[in-house]
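Sequence only, no structure available. Ideas?
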Amino acid sequence: MLMRLILVFTLTPLIELALLIELGRQIGTGATLVVVVATGLLGAILAKNEGLGAIRRMREEMAAGRLPAEALLDGAIILTGGLLLLTPGLLTDACGFICLLPPTRGALKNWLRRKIQRKLEFDDVHFSPGK
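Reply:
I predicted one. Tokens follow.
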């Protein structure tokens, strides 16, 4: 797990840099900066709207006396998408938008739900008492 994190945190910036340099070569520095700023602004607006929707769904579920599991999962994915959009770069922006757009977020949520269920079924999740 640690090795994966090291790879992600070293390879991602290198890939982002290469993509931004290539985009700058193709469309120019100014246009590249506009793309980075525009995706950040669009992402912020989308994250806010989707996040508020998830909070509303959580409140509705709790008011009805139900555990807001789906809305919490949505909220976690939306938060992740918003964080990815804060980092400048094309790859992280694409991943951020995947997390924020409802159709792709739904597919991501289904994949994540299956992964969590599999871990629980195979007893891969362990809890230790807090200190």
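The mean pLDDT is 90.
Hope that gets you unstuck.
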